[in-house]
Amino acid sequence: MQDKFDDKSYWEKYYKEQGKEFNANPSKFAQHLIEKNYLKPELSLVELGCGNGRDTLYFAQMGLKVRAIDQSEFTTDNLNKIKGIVVQTNDFTRLENLEEKADVIYSRFTLHSIDKKGEERVLKWVQSNLKKDGIFCIEARTTKDPIYGKGEQRGKHIWFYQNHHRRFLNAKSFKNRLEEYGFDIHFFKEKNGFAPYKNQDPVVLRAIVKADQQ
Question: What number does CATH give the domain 8-211?
């Protein structure tokens, strides 16, 4: 079994097929962060793996200074046409340090799409590039998700299903890792109801943590 994977070609094809229709509405997580005043106009936000750009657009419309990062050239080419959004075509697990640290780093449904070493690189990068008292906002599938165990197992908690990989997070272990990296846990909950889509209601981890040691 392998413990790393590369689904870049899958996601490039996926977003091309979805086209513009799929990025109409922001996620419930993005809306929650705005409604609860975690995110405010003029704050700088880096989105790790912006996907189809629906949350990117929403954050920019709400007045945040957004840097969107994704491997998909189709996605970044489209977002690059929109004023007020800085776009970077890159693997978000292999980033250089920002010139100026961010107020917010946002990762929705991206940490379960990378391998364990990629996760380690991301946590180190966030630790180095988040302002003191800045927040790291995370939503990802966990081992309690109903689709966990479906398809072909290709590593620890890694399943190849519906033509791509997911590395489901163990919530307790991930919380421990966040604390090991010096993050202050502000909100941490694992449940369904956070990210319903059509007839699916996955169990996901939602976390909001603060940088407190810089």
Answer: 3.40.50.150
